[in-house]
Every structure is written in structure tokens, then in C-alpha cells.
Write the C-alpha cells for this entry.
Amino acid sequence: MGQGFFITGTDTEIGKTTASLVLMRAFKQQGYQVAGMKPVAAGCRITPQGLRNDDAEKLLEESSLDMPYDLINPFAFEPAIAPHIAAEQTNQPITIEVITNAYKSIASRSDIVVVEGIGGWAVPINERQTMADVAKALDLPIILVAGIRLGCLNHTLLTYSAIASQRGHGTAWIANLLGEPDPVSAQNIEYLKQTLPLAYLGTIPYYDQNSQLNPANMPLNISLLNL
């Protein structure tokens, strides 16, 4: 059974997929067989093969092994809305058991599985459970992606507090620049480095969203993960 990491973030659209891809590339460069997983995805597009999510497809493309899309993304929804609402509207309830079974199948074929959450830590998946419950059920070390922008200190510290209070295995964090670097961004990152009791893996630089992401140009210090 391979090792896994659960990637959460301070919000939606703050770089969880980018961080996941960079991590996957770094693991592969160390010789590991790596797979990506996006258990729940909203805003999927209709294709002849079924619903497909851009982020999940990127993770699949970066994976070392070719796996069925439905295994990588067992819950895919067309509406670009909160997953528990999308699940209710489409009569497709999200269950943690399906996610854990899919994860075990992927992990049995891989050295490392990078599992990307949806939205932030506390996003609901049904009436009773959130993505935090998914992370706890998978029992994986958690890597927190902090989107560096106005308000990031509050969002990052609150997210870490929630992870710690729910006994999540907070392991490391990554800073992701959401705009051109400036002195304030650097100060915010330095403050978080001094405040968060997590390993700092590095900063992913800002890049034009219209340009091609090259994970090889965004190294992270994965040696801190004690693989």
C-alpha cells in the first residue's frame, strides 16, 4: 500500500491543483510511482466518456500510471456549486466509503497518492459530513496550501486551527502566490513561516494563468516530508 498526502487549502481557487501537480512532479523526480486523486469535483463538463473535470484530468495526466478516470474522480458533478448541493440536485449522494475504497485501489498500485480536496477544509459533502471527514477517514498527512493574497493570514491560521482542533495530521504547508510578488507578500509568507507549526515546503511563484504550468520549474523541499 502506497503512502498518501491530503491537499487542502485556505479557500477555493487558491492553487490546490497547482500544488498537487508540483508535488507529484517532485515525487516522480525522486523515482516514486505517483498517482493523483480528486475524490469530489464540481463544474465538470459533459464529454462522450461522461463528466470530466479539468483539475482531475491534470492529475491523471501527471500520474505515473494510467488509471480509469472514475477511480481518480469518483464523484463528478456538472453544476459549479458546493458539492453537497450538486449531489442533492443530481441525486448522487457523496459517500466516504466510495472515496476510501477508490483511494485504497489507487494506493495499491502506487508508491505515493496525492489526494486533492475540493474547496477548503470544511466544505460540506452531505448533510452531516465535510471534506475534513474525508481527510480523517483516509488518515493521511495533510498539506495546507495557502493562497497568498489580502486576508491570507487570517484564512491560513483559521484553517490550521480547524485542522488541529479536529486532530488532523497537519504535516506541511505551501505558499502559492496569487499575484506578482511584492514586499507585503514576502512579509506575509515570513509571518506564516514563523507562526505555523508545520514544515514549510516552499513557495510556488505566480504565473500567468494563460501560460502552461511547468511543475519542473517550481521545486518544493519534499525532503521535509520524511518519505
The chain has one domain: 3-225.
